[in-house]
Amino acid sequence: MITETEVAWLQTRYPNLTVNAARTEISGELVFAAAYDKATDTFTPLTQPGQTAPGIVLRGSYEISIKKGRNDKTLPTLQVLGNKITPILDRHFYDTGHACLCGPVEEINHMSAGISFPRYLEVLVYPFLYAQRHYDTHEEWPWKDYPHGSAGALESFYRAGSTQEHAEVCIRKIQLNVPGWPRMEKLLSGQEHVNGATNCVCGPRHKMREHPAVWYGLLKLRQAIAGYDLSIQKTAQQQDESVKK
Amino acid sequence: MTPQKYLEELLASQDLSPRQVLDLESHKDEVTKFLQAQFGSAPKIKYAGSWVKGTMISDRYDLDIVCYFLHTDSRSLKEIREDVAKRLSAKYLTRQKSSAERILDLKGVAAPGDFHIDVVPGRFIEGSDDVFLHVQYGDKERMLTNLKTHIDHIVGSGCVPLIRLTKLWAHRNRVEIKTFVLELFVIDALTGSRNKGNLKEGFLEVLKAFRDDFATTQLIDPANTNNIVSQLMEPAEKSAIAQAADKTLDGIDGSDSLADWQAAFLETGTVTTKSSGGSGVASAAAGAVASGTSFTPTRQWGGSHDNGN
């Protein structure tokens, strides 16, 4: 997960973070400062003494634990320890307590590009913690986030999806939502007609036209399913897991 | 390197490779032979779309082929369309589009991932090269069009290089826009402009037009004045495009920095180094974030279920 060179970098830049012998886990206190400029939608980690950047500057410190991802397609996991943040869905945490750092398509893109640990820390973890800090002080997220669950996966595919792998990952993420899958299966297979007046994936309170990025993401994913001839049937293993849940 | 030079080289890099051209020709050949085997020599089968307009880019392209039947064909447009669809689907993996049958499984190894071939069936109108197409959107079942008028309008506009550049910008920035709308809008935006031959200034002019005028500009099909092409896009879609143009302009308007222009076409990824920051020198660890580097933060997701980790 982290190379020897990167360990040396980490020890210099973040002396409160320690790496285990197998280099699969990093833990400790992360003290950070960063700026976000809403006008230009730019985020700047402030990592050098005296460094400045436009936008709102926030500082914070969190006890964190970063562990190697499940495989080479998944990002390392981030957990925020202590009681500064409640690790719930509305704060962008999976039900495992791991942080949702980005959408599923973006995760694939980061991993395909061979994300280094420094980039993981300062391009993904920093903004995540900055956003949490901002939410604590302003009760709103500093920049737009993806909606929960399947709707977010569809929006991620709409905004960043372009390959068969992106489509497959999004389908798998959507399939994880066991109660929502029967309708999603109809929507993805084209059995349920979709237009602006169709109830959104996020629930019956909203129409597709109110969430155009979700709507277009659905249409784009349907197109990818047809184009790449993808199956949306759950595998036997997925079906077993659904029964258990 | 100046932005103008960079844009010229960028466009040159978007020319199709000889292999890609050969593949396109061979696909066209195959589809033509198949249609002729099905329908005889009666229908006129030829290239259409960006290939004949000269607006193709290698990052993303498809192949458009028209299959126009004689005006004496007594079948309805719907029957012609269904007949073409049925026969194509017997051989290829196809999908119906608004006015075309899309072949999804005929592509060469050098083609982009989402390459496809659109076959557009139609029927000539007696005494002209105008054609009626069967369409599956809006309240009408047929639409009048004229391929030659479209080609003449685009090719004769003097805007082909800027159309290609704008297509590339839209593709790389994931701006969802119908190609015909883009083509007509670029021409509209540059009507009377002195910058048609200047990629840098012309592109800035197009982006400003997207930002300021796209929502309200009425684009009319040059082959059919009853076809208001701009209505093919929803206001929300137009607004998203205006925002994307605005965002790109923020980075390049008034800038002669090569890095800014490369970022507009995502040639350096999404991370850009702002001049106000530190030295911009990468730190010791390979791939580390350089001091002073700014970037657009990734949207966090509320994945409601275990991601498997």
Write a brief caption for the model.
The complex is a heterodimer of chains A (about 240) and B (about 300). With about 240 residues, chain A is of the alpha+beta class. Chain A has helices spanning about 5-15, 105-110, 115-140, 150-160, 165-175, 180-190, 210-225, 235-245, and strands spanning about 15-20, 25-35, 40-45, 55-65, 75-80, 200, 205.
Description:
The complex is a heterodimer of chains A (245) and B (309). In chain A, β6 and β7 form a beta hairpin. With 245 residues, chain A is an alpha+beta fold. In chain A, strands 1, 2, 3, 4 and 5 form a five-stranded antiparallel β-sheet that branches. Chain A has a two-stranded antiparallel sheet with strand order 6-7. Helices cover 40% and strands 18% of the residues of chain A. By secondary structure, chain B is an alpha+beta fold. In chain B, strands 1, 2, 3, 4, 5, 6 and 7 form a seven-stranded mixed β-sheet that branches. In chain B, strands 8-9 form a two-stranded antiparallel sheet. Mean pLDDT of chain B is 85; it is low at 269-288 and 305-309. At the A-B interface, α1, β3, α3, α4 and α7 of A face α9 and β11 of B.
